[in-house]
Amino acid sequence: MGAAGARSIWSMVALYDTAARDVVEIKPSGDTLTMYTCGPTVYRYAHIGNLRTFLLPDLIARAFDYQGTGVRAIQNITDVGHMTDELFDRGEDRMLLAAGIENRSPEEIAAYYTDFYFRDIEAFNLRRAESYPRASDHISHMIELIVRLIERGHAYEVGGNVYYDVTSFPSYGNLSRNSLEELQQGHRNVEADPNKRHHADFLLWKAAGPKRVIHFPSPWGDGYPGWHIECSAMSLAHLGDEFDVHTGGVDLIFPHHEDEIAQSEGATGSRVVRHWVHSQHLLAEGRKMSKSAENFFDVRDLEKRGHTDPLAFRLLCLQTRYRAQFNFTFDALSGAERTLDRWRRLVADWSDAPAPSRAAGGRFEERFLRAMNADLDTPTIVALIAEVIGTADLDPADKVSLLQGWDRFLGLDLARDAGKELHLPGGASELIEQRERARASKDWSESDRLRTELSELGVEIEDTPSGPKPRITR
Ligand code: AMP
Ligand code: ZN
């Protein structure tokens, strides 16, 4: 793991770079940070594991934005293509399989699930990327890239299929620490393709079989692109020949990102991605959450079980750093819900607190910046919030100003309840009035009795110079 984390004070955002195997400071090469993220394959709803991975570029963008650096984020939508090499090599893809199962056209499937994806990211407070290029709109870019790879001696054609020649790219395997010798043993459970020169060569373009519904003309005949070439083509088209950060889930390190490097650098002749950053998996019942393992939940599944605020899941994610696995449970989600409710209630209660006499939050702000920049140490920030809330010598106005500021990074909508009308339970308003009358006539025992009665209804009263301030406690 190198010297990861040895340094703890960074003046800018530092992230764990998969290629460097260390935490390194991210210095954008231009005025803005440029970032590409492998987006969803839109043949099904995104599950909450996918959402956890899409939280990573959101947090990176927010961390830079918090410190005044703009971000150009691009995220593709895989709307043609497959998910695994196994399926691809057999000429199948998940879009088409889903179309067959749901009896709809692949375009209808893609449009339907893309729409839900955008709803989910909005509910999860993920900032919109600058654009969401679709694979289906970039076929010509992919063909151009493949032509370039053939010209530069990195790819070869056999019978309408085009393969990447891994032996032409000496650093193949560096990102994932795979050597070609190991890969030769057969890293996939598929029959060897006799057209390949090397077992680890991968398809860039595949000839369309007679049953293939979607196919495109190309210099090699009708066919369709490989999955890996999509991301090379779209990142180069939208961010140019070099960009700062590329994110995705850890399962994409090999072969997807290894192949992307070979393609993009093979075509340009120079380094394209400056930093690779990967998000760890969300587990359920101890195993990676996935559609195929049938241990997945999406936003609608959570709603059906009464967990109607997706931001509680966002807080649950923030309680673990992006590069550690964690196991999803409904108990943990309920715990995050209670915490978030409490924080929002406090922010609401404090938001009309008188302005602080002095800005006392500086020491906390410093610790917040340090944690955010130290590889997005969100668990430390969550603990810091609890500490701020519990600090007796900090004015409520200071507390609320810290929390609201930090929420620009956390995205938890902490001020959601501020300024909202309180919906008091039936009878509470009358009890509050009676209690005011008792206080006015200095009947303290009656006033205390009414306070207890209110408390049983779930209403706490704080007596402030401007009158009683009710708060709902459950
Ligand atoms: P997909 O839509 O299947 O292409 O996946 C979208 C993203 O979700 C990819 O970056 C995957 O690496 C990531 N991903 C898939 N399963 C999980 C999981 N259980 N936890 C976290 N991320 C995941
Ligand atoms: Zn990708």
Report on this model:
By secondary structure, the protein is an alpha/beta fold. It has three domains: 31-279, HUPs (Rossmann fold), CATH 3.40.50; 304-410, no CATH class; 428-472, no CATH class. Helices cover 42% and strands 15% of the residues. The protein contains 16 helices and 15 strands. The strands form five sheets. The protein has a four-stranded parallel β-sheet, sandwiched between helices. It has a four-stranded antiparallel β-sheet with strand order 5-6-7-8. The protein has a three-stranded mixed β-sheet with strand order 12-11-13. Helix 10 (310-318) crosses helix 11. The longest helix has 21 residues, at 330-350. The chain is elongated. The model is unreliable at 1-5 (pLDDT under 50). It binds adenosine monophosphate and zinc ion. Residues 38, 40-41, 49-50, 52-53, 83, 248-249, 251-252, 281-282, 288-290 line the site of adenosine monophosphate.
Strand and helix map with partners:
Layout: E1 14-17, E2 22-25, E3 33-37, H1 48-66, E4 71-75, H2 85-89, H3 94-102, H4 106-123, H5 139-151, E5 155-158, E6 161-164, H6 180-184, E7 202-207, E8 223-225, H7 227-239, E9 243-249, H8 253-268, E10 273-279, E11 282-284, E12 287-288, H9 299-304, H10 310-318, E13 326-328, H11 330-350, H12 362-373, H13 378-390, H14 396-410, H15 428-440, H16 444-456, E14 459-464, E15 467-472
Helix pairs in contact: 3-4, 5-7, 5-8, 7-8, 10-11, 12-13, 13-14, 15-16
Zinc ion is lined by residues 38, 231, 256.
Proper CATH architecture of the largest domain: 3-Layer(aba) Sandwich
Number of helices: 16
What number of structural domains do the residues give? 3
Would you count the extended β strands for me?
15
* Major sheet: 4 strands, parallel
* CATH topology category name of the largest domain: Rossmann fold
**Helix content range:** 40-55%
